[in-house]
Structure formats: structure tokens, C-alpha cells
Design brief:
about 170 residues, alpha+beta, seven-stranded mixed β-sheet, 7 strands, about 35% strand
């Protein structure tokens, strides 16, 4: 059975391990190793994740099956949003499922969970950025009612990539 567990400061090591694992599984084989390692060495540190956990406008949740953490989501509100800082919006900055648990509907349940949180906070829309070459994720979000509204650059090491920004009105 799937449940969602709020990530708190004592969970930092577990979040760091899971974050690295799912990101490496999803994208390492698709990117230049030097750029990938440069990005990951900056993005996945205790200090960075601790500052994100301690930000009152951000929240992480683990997706838990039984007693195994199989994925996680990071939601940003207000000033923590990476792009717009819109008080009427929620950003899904990260949503990842371990490779061994893909195709089990966990991503949809995490997305539904995020939408529920946004609705509970009386927000107008929820948005996210997705790598332009992550075709499966783009199709998934489109099926769930998200529409492209913009794009931005994402630096993976020295490789400047494009993220498609998608949103769903609530």
C-alpha cells in the first residue's frame, strides 16, 4: 500500500540517497558524464538539501510502499518557487520514482497528492518544468491536464538544456 511521508530534517540522509539514486537512474545514461557529475556534485549535497527542507515555503514527501521509500516529490510555494513566486500557484520542482517502481501508478498518485495539496491551499494552478527530451513525462503530464506555457534553460554542468514549463489550472 502506498503512503506519503513528510520529509523532515532527520530524514536528510535518506532523502539525499534516494535523490541521487533516482536522478542517476533517470538521466545519467542520457547526458555527458562530466556535465552530469558536475551538476550532481552541486545539486545533491547535505547543505543544499538541508536548506531546502528548512525553507518554510518548500515541502518534500516520500512515496512509501510498505516500509520502502520508492520516490519523492518536492513542492514549492510562494517565494520558494524557482520561476514565478506566485502566491496563487504551487510548483512541483521534483517528482521522481525509483526505476524498479515505475509503471505502478505511483507517479500519478504523487501528482494527485500534489494537486490535492494545492487545492487545499486554495491555489489557482500547479506548474512544473520537464526536460524537453523526457517525452514520456511530457505525455504523462499532458494526459493529466497540464499544458505547455513557457520554457526555461537548465544548466546541467556546462550543458545548457531546455525545460518545458507546464501548468494545470485548478
Amino acid at each position: 500500500m502506498l503512503s506519503f511521508q513528510l520529509v523532515q530534517q532527520p530524514d536528510l540522509d535518506n532523502l539525499l540517497i534516494l535523490s541521487k539514486k533516482v536522478f542517476y537512474d533517470a538521466f545519467q545514461h542520457l547526458n555527458n558524464p562530466d556535465d552530469f557529475d558536475a551538476y550532481c556534485s552541486a545539486a545533491f549535497t547535505h547543505e543544499k538539501l538541508l536548506s531546502e527542507i528548512e525553507n518554510p515555503d518548500s515541502v518534500f514527501y516520500f512515496a512509501v510502499v510498505g516500509d520502502e521509500r520508492v520516490g519523492y516529490i518536492k513542492l514549492n510555494f510562494r517565494q520558494a518557487q524557482t520561476e514565478f513566486q506566485d502566491n496563487d500557484a504551487c510548483e512541483i520542482e521534483r517528482i521522481y520514482i525509483s526505476g524498479s517502481h515505475q509503471g505502478m501508478g505511483i507517479g500519478k498518485k504523487l501528482l494527485d497528492f500534489a494537486i490535492t495539496k494545492a487545492v487545499e491551499n486554495n491555489l489557482q494552478y500547479i506548474w512544473l518544468g520537464v526536460w524537453e527530451h523526457n517525452y514520456n513525462a511530457i505525455r504523462f503530464y499532458e494526459r493529466e491536464g497540464f499544458k505547455q506555457f513557457s520554457s526555461h534553460e537548465f544548466a546541467l554542468g556546462h550543458d545548457i538544456q531546455t525545460d518545458i514549463l507546464m501548468k494545470k489550472e485548478l
